[in-house]
Structures are given as C-alpha cells and as structure tokens.
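Hello forum,

I keep getting stuck at the same step: I have a sequence, I want structure tokens, and every attempt I make locally crashes halfway through. Rather than fight my setup again tonight, could one of you with a working pipeline run this one for me? It's a single chain of 178 residues.
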Amino acid sequence: MKSNIALIGFMGTGKTAVGHVLAKKLNRPLVEIDSLIERKVGKSIADIFRNDGEITFRELEIEAVRETARERGKIIVCGGGVVLNAINIDRLRENSIIVNLVASPEIILKRTSNNEGSRPLLNVDDPVRRIKELMKFRKPFYERGADITIDTSKPDINTAANQIIDRLKSYEGFDFQE
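Reply #2:
Ran it on my machine without issues. Output:
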C-alpha cells in the first residue's frame, strides 16, 4: 500500500504551495527535495548549478529522492527536473502516488518571475521561449511518471489540493491512514 504523495511538474506549477496545503489538510509531514539538498550541501540550488554544474545537482537529487522515497506518510515536493532520471520515478513509484501539476507557460513565467536569479534554467534572454522548450522536452517524462495530473493554471491552491485529495480517495492502493 502506497502512503506518500509525490508532487512533480515544471517549475512554477505550484508544487511547493500545493504541497504545503496538502500537508496541512492531511496532517502529514512535507519534504521538499530541493530544500533537503540545500541543507545537506550548505548551498542554494542556484549556487550548486553555478559552481558545480547541473550534473552534480542531478546526482545530489538522485540521492535525496532515494532517501525520501522509502519513508512513509509524507508529502514529497520534487524539483521540476526530477523526472529526467528514470531511477527517481522508479523509486518514488514504490511508495508514492505521483501527482503531476501542470500550468500554461504564461502562468509559469508570471509565477517564476518573482524569483529572480533563483531559477538557473531561466537565466536567459528569452525566458518564455526557454520555458516552452523545456516543457516540450520534459512533457513525456512528466506524463510517464504521473499517476494523476492536475492543472493548476486556473484554480487556487486550495482547490488544487482538494482535487488531489478527491482523486486519491478513489485511487486503489493508497493509504490515507498512515
């Protein structure tokens, strides 16, 4: 029986915000993979990308997912690129229902533009074009990994969390009690 809820999706789709609401509504601890990595190495994600490169970050991400995925009864907020390594999805799938959050590129740009410099992959001249390119490339990875997909473009965070809970109630093999 699976007991974790893992949130995947592109940056700016609301994984962290929805994760916090889900954790509160379901009275479960929240684990943010990116925050876990930052605490372990004592650097921000932006600094890891800048100083050590994306490959180093992805290796740290694989290790953080490995540790977190075996825990039970958690809300796991994954970074946007976690799906790029199949091993992450395989590990999450063992004990988690994987929820893919989606939003339009325009909404994503609006949501991420407040975090100047903290989104290393968007530090480019044309961030909308970059978002569309990355989304197009990653879409099949998100779709393959997801058990459930929720569009967060329009509903508020609370509505998105309620939609996830409603979908999980009818999901065979998920344990709400844990």
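The mean pLDDT is 90. If your local run keeps crashing, start a new thread with the error log.
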